[in-house]
Amino acid sequence: MSLEAIRYAPGRLEVLDQLLLPRQSVYIPVRDTDDGWRVINTMQVRGAPAIAIVGCLSLAVELSRAKFASVDELLAHVRGRLQHLVTSRPTAVNLQTAARALAAAAERAAEATTDVDQLRDSVVTEAEQMLSADVADNRAIGEHGADHLLRTAAGPLALLTHCNTGSLATAGYGTALGVIRSVHSRGRLARAFCTETRPYMQGSRLTAYELVHEQIPATLVCDSAVAALMRDGRVHAVVVGADRVAANGDTANKIGTYQLAVVAAHHSVPFYVAAPSTSIDLGLASGAEIPIEERPAAELLCVAGHRLAADGIAAWNPAFDVTPSNLITGGIITEKGVLPAADVGRVADL
Ligand code: MRU
After folding, report:
1. What is the C-alpha end-to-end distance of the chain, expressed in Å?
2. Model confidence pTM above 0.85
3. Per-residue pLDDT averaged across 24-31, rounded?
4. Which residues pair with 12 in a beta bridge?
5. 291 falls within a domain
6. CATH number for position 121
C-alpha cells in the first residue's frame, strides 16, 4: 500500500506529520480551518495538491461540527475561512483554485436552497470530491507521461526528479513521481535519481522514503551532483512537479528547479514538468508575476533542529524559483495530455 499523507472520513481529518518523516510516522488531527492553516504553514503537510485538499477538507470537518442560523451566515463563514486559508502559503496556486471552486459551489448551492444542512452537505461533498479527483488526475498524468517518455525510448530510462511530488505531496500516486511510478510499473525504469532538495530535504527525507517503500530502484544525490550526473550521460530525462505554471509556461517549483533546468539544457537532457491543470494559472502572463514564498532563515541555518551554519551569518531562503518556459524542453505533462510548455494555455482544448 502507498503512503498516505491525508486520512479522511466524514467529520474526521488527519495528516501525516511530514516534519517527522522518515523516522516517525505520526498522524495529527486537523479539527478546523485554524488547524488546517497551521499544518500547511508549518509544512507538516506540503506539496501543492496536498495543501489544496487539506485546506478544503479542514473546512469540511469544521462545518460538520458548527451550527449556523441561516444560509447567509453559513455562506459568509465559508467565504471568510477560505480567504484565510489561502494566506497559509502563497506560491502554489492549487489552494487558491480549489478555494475559488468551493466558494462558487457554495454560492450555487445557496441559490437552490434555504436549508442550512443541505447547503453544508453540498460544500462538504464538493471538498470530498477533490480527494478522489486528485488521485484520478495523478494516475492520468502518470500514464500520459509514461506514454510520452517511452514513445522514443530505446531502452530502460533513468529519470531524475527534485523535491517530493509523490503520494506525500498529493492525495495519492503523485505527479512527477507518478510518472516515474508508471514507467516503473511498465518495467521500463532503469533507475530514479532524486535530489536531497536543500534546505527542507524533501528529496532525502520524503522522496527517498517513498521510492524505497515502493521498491523502485533509486539513488539519492546531493543537489550539487546533478551536473556531473548529466555530464556522465546517466540521466535520460528530468521530471519535476509544479506549484504554479503561468500562461506562457514559466513554472514555479521548489528552489533548485531552475538550476536543474539550466544544467539539463546544457547537456541536452529533456526537461519535463508534471502537474495537474489546477496548477496552471492563466491569470498570470509570465512567471515574473508568481509570488515566491520566503521561509524562515532557521530552516536554512539548521538541519533537523540542529544549527549547522556559523553564528552571525545572514540567510536568504526562497522556497521556490521560476523556470522559464524555454528551458522546459520536454513539455508539460497534465492529466489531459502533454503540451509544449509555451502552449500550456491550450490545456482546456485537450
Ligand atoms: O515547499 P513544498 O514542499 O510544498 O514544495 C513542493 C514542491 O515544490 C513540489 O514540487 C510541488 O508542490 C508539486 S507537488 C505534486
Report:
1. 32
2. yes
3. 98
4. 9
5. yes
6. 1.20.120.420
Q: Is the CB of 205 under 6 A from ligand 1?
A: no
Query: Could you tell me if 331 and 199 lie in one domain?
Result: yes
Q: Identify which of 44, 253, 290 to mutate to test ligand 1's pocket (most ligand atoms within 8 A of the CB).
A: 253
Tell me, yes or no, whether 122 and 175 share the same domain: no
Residue 159 forms part of a structural domain? yes
Nearest C-alpha to atom 10 of ligand 1 is from which residue? 241
pLDDT at 305 over 90: no
Please report the DSSP string for 22-89 in residue order: TT---EEE--SHHHHHHHHHTTSS-SHHHHHHHHHHHHHHHHHH---SSHHHHHHHHHHHHHHHTTS-
Instruction: Please check the confidence at residue 21 and state whether its pLDDT lies above 90.
Output: yes
3 state SS of 277: helix
Residue 274 main-chain phi, psi, to 5 deg? -115, 120
pLDDT at 348 over 90: no
Query: How many structural domains is the chain composed of?
Result: 2
pLDDT band at 265 (very low <50, low <70, confident <90, very high): very high
Residue with CA at minimum distance from ligand 1 atom 8: 254
Closest ligand 1 atom to Cα of 253: 8
Sign of the CA dihedral running 33, 37, 43, 49: positive
**243 given a catalytic annotation:** yes
Place of cell 492549487: 94
172 Cβ inside 6 Å of ligand 1: no
- Summarize pLDDT for 203-230 with one digit per residue, the tens: 999 999 999 999 999 999 999 999 999 9
Q: Do 109 and 169 share a structural domain?
A: no
Residue to probe by mutation, ligand 1, list 39, 43, 46, 200, most atoms within 8 Å of CB: 46
The pLDDT of residue 88 = 98
**Ligand 1 centre and the CA of 258: distance in Å?**
14
Q: Using the mean position of ligand 1's atoms as its centre, give its distance from the Cα of residue 186 in Å.
A: 26
Residue 35: give the domain boundaries.
6-136
Domain match, 87 and 236 both:
no
Q: Are residues 215 and 189 in the same domain?
A: yes
Confidence of residue 296 (pLDDT cuts 50, 70, 90): very high
Residues 230 and 287 in one domain: yes
